[in-house]
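Can't attach files on this board, so I'm pasting raw text. These are the components:
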Amino acid sequence: MAVKPPVMRALSRSLSLRLRQAPRPSSPCSSKQLRTYSNEPTKARLNGSVDYSSTPLLNHISQSCLANPELPQHVRQSKTKRINLFQAINEAMRHALQTDERVLVFGEDVQFGGVFRCTMGLAQDFGNERVFNTPLSEQGLVGFAIGAASEGMRPIAEIQFADYVFPAFDQLINECAKVRYRAGDTGMDCGGVVVRMPSGGVGHGALYHSQSPEALFTHVPGLRVVIPRSPVQAKGLLLAAIASNDPVIFMEPKILYRAAVEQVPIGSYTLPLDRAEILKPGSDLTIVSYGTPLYTCQAAIEAAEKDFRCSVELIDLRTIYPWDRATVLESVEKTGRAIVVHESMMNAGVGAEIAATIQEQAFLRLSAPVKRVAGWATHTGLVYEKFIIPDVTRVYDAIKQSLDY
Amino acid sequence: MSLRYGTRIILRRRGLYAPAYVNTSQSPLLARSWQRWSSVAASPASERVLFPGALNSKFTNALEFTRPSATEAIPTYRVMDQYGVVIDEHSGVDTTDEEALKLYSHMVTLSIMDLIMFEAQRQGRLSFYMVSAGEEGITVGSASALNPSDVVFAQYRETGVFIQRGFTLDQFMNQLFSNCKDGGKGRNMPVHYGSRQLNIHTISSTLATQIPHSAGAAYALKLQNLQRPDLPPRISCCYFGEGAASEGDFHGALNIAATRACPVIFVCRNNGFAISTPTADQYRGDGIASRGAGYGIQTIRVDGNDIFAVRKAIKEARRRALEDGGKPILVEAMAYRVGHHSTSDDSYAYRQKVEVEDWKRRDNPITRLRKWLEDRGLWDENKEKELRGKARKEILIAFDKAEKEKKPALRHAFTDVWETLTEEQKAHMNELRSVIERYPEEYNTDEYEGGLDGLKIEDSK
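---
Top answer:
Structure tokens for the assembled complex are below.
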């Protein structure tokens, strides 16, 4: 068979996928010529030290993955394989499509595998009646999902970037979140809806490929908002979201799609949709975060613990709403200090809610004000991203300030 | 490295999809994009363009813009004229006498309920109401042409659909008075009815949001009917006004319904006004019907004051919607909004009273059917009086009963937001309870079923 050279569009796509990878300092891929726009300061000790290939937040060996007590017993005795986050998402959807004929997967450019490859192979294997492209209309496709769910299907709709979810805001907030409540005993609901969307900074996404709009959804009763930090979580939480009878907004940190690689159980499993996870116990200070910034926090904690001889507890919120107040409060009761870290803008962000809750319920235990490390009150201008999204230095400094208070 | 990656994608695609079939919903759109890459410029002899975006377009040397005014307005289909005379006896009326009498009694009941409830709202006995005056023919007629298993999505002026499907007077009144027997647990404004049993989705105030829902629901029904051939073939039917059709949801819905080949009937009630906005400020095309073709959707415009025309159009639309694995159909039913927009609106602020009176007198779906019935010897003044008296009495009985019921238990302010109560919600319920206990004079909990105990969490889901 004659091999035709790839046409321009495919070439540029595959190139852009390569470039979307998170910075991996040790990787030969990150040649200086290719990434002149993202050079790191040569003397940096804190910033630029996040290394996904060695971070303790990912399971680099099978044993550590299977040691997770949240996994069901039969999964803990099963095998694992090393996959990245987009593959984990793909596996979760593949499993759902396989086991439940009510599951549909659709969105813009989903059929050929998705612009981030999350739906790769699904249309081929399950047919384009169940995995299909929609016209380019977010309000149309989310409305379509609500209608399908209200007639008993379990649609997984994809918004290509979280930045483009706003045309569907009315559908999500006035419809999706309220269908069960307004129907009461008349018996309608659209709990089968899962809306997936890549979110968060990616290094060069600028205004409309970087946003983290989770706080806008956590202000809406009736929705569940979930953000995984790793392939193991992505698979388990997405499967739980699909099984959940409440509508779920599932935000996938796109910078982790290829960067976060770890051992993931081969079979299917779910992780709880209302439980935070303590990633690292500590006694002096609590850091609460979710998604990508957890890696930033981990790096900052490593440096701070060395420099200040402190012990920091790191909590992954996982489910942003409804969220696990008990775990966070228990931790702050113990440490007396708290920092919340997220990428999105500080004002009325998730950190505001967590800080207010801690202040309300752990007031007497606090030795320092709750600190928020978040995006500044601005948009993510292309060349300013690394000054806007919380970095290791800012988290490190927040730890220092909180301890010194 | 990256080259190999791109090549892999292309090779896989080439093997899987034959680029032969395009522009049908079943065809993988991939085939189209593949075609786009491989498409070549048309040969000099070709009379058709090979652009993938419009495959059947011919070349022309004439620089001509398509002008909307160049085409005549889409005709309005009718079966009988405004004197109740069937125009084409041959194709005629498809309704039995009994059925016609039933349709008539449903329309009359609806109009009487509208009068009573509008007045009740004016007396402050319920918070809000919306009448259907002038549009009874569209709702009762179309609903009578659907199968009871067909799924309905309504806007809010479709009370006739509920009556036709069997929503009882008690159910109407319980919802309007938001009492403890209201299926919606007193959460919605009046007129926001719904019933899973009758396959009518709960009405929400947001305009046009239900249109993409109906497309998604139709797609679900289509797949379920494929997966379970023993089920009766079902479609979904969606109602909306001509004002709502200006919303983006209308566009998104019709487009996705066409590309995904959804068996859905879109019924637009074009009654001339969106609150105060006349259609001249709403659109400049030929109504809503002219848009159907742009989406590749079969469309008909029908006289909404002619219940027989509505029925025949919807029956045929339903048959077509189920053809070839399913497709959407657009029906624009013309009418005049005789009543005010709602009880919060005085329409004489933006239109002449004489115009409304004229429409009431000249043409309306109820009198038109009455004339037909009378011509046929099926109806007379005595029967009319009897029907009106009976309907009025039944409505008032249901009214009294519903008005006396308590409001739903207070916990229903919190239930059904999520499938189960969250920890946060339980805390909020306890806090509310504690506030009421400490300030009992400030709240009237007796109106609610179970009083303050209605907030007990043990009883809640």
